[in-house]
């Protein structure tokens, strides 16, 4: 998912509400999320949440990917400063609720 190798991926367990948690070494201002799913295993309703190191997560944005294999991009407005980011996949196009991600990029600026 982070190694730029198209042959590796992250796959969730089955069931609703799967997530990926990222922690940064310093504050960042997230401006965009890019994600590439395996078609048929796409998150339908997704959100990005963020927080400082020891705080509760708050929603930064909702996003709604298409069920396809290509890289998709979602702008994040608002400019919140965060140390931790959680990408939440509330449901999936897969009957069993599985999600498969080949690429996940969180873009922004160091603060």
List the helices and strands and how they pair.
Blueprint: E1 10-11, E2 18-37, E3 46-51, E4 58-63, E5 72-75, E6 81-89, E7 100-110
Antiparallel strand pairs: 1-7, 2-5, 2-6, 2-7, 3-4, 3-6
Commentary on this structure:
The structure is a single chain. With 111 residues, the chain is mostly beta strands. The chain is built from no helices and seven strands. The chain is globular and about 40 Å long. The mean pLDDT is 92.
Features:
111 residues, mainly beta, seven-stranded antiparallel sheet, 0% helix
Q: Helix amount, in percent?
A: under 10%
Order of H and E elements: EEEEEEE
Multimer state: single chain
Name the poorly predicted regions: none
Shape: globular
Mean pLDDT equals: 92
Radius of gyration: 13 Å
Q: Summed up, what is this model?
A:
With 111 residues, the chain is mainly β. Helices cover 0% and strands 52% of the residues.
């Amino acid at each position: 998912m982070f190694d730029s190798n198209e042959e590796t991926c992250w796959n969730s367990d089955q069931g609703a509400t799967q997530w990926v948690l990222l922690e940064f070494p310093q504050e960042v201002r997230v401006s965009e999320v890019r994600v590439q799913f395996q078609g048929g295993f796409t998150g339908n309703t997704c959100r990005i949440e963020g927080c400082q190191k020891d705080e509760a997560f708050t929603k930064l944005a909702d996003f709604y990917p298409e069920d396809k294999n290509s890289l998709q991009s979602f702008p994040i407005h608002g400019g919140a400063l965060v140390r931790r980011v959680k990408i939440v996949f509330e449901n999936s196009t897969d009957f069993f609720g599985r999600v498969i991600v080949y690429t996940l990029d969180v873009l922004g600026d160091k603060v």
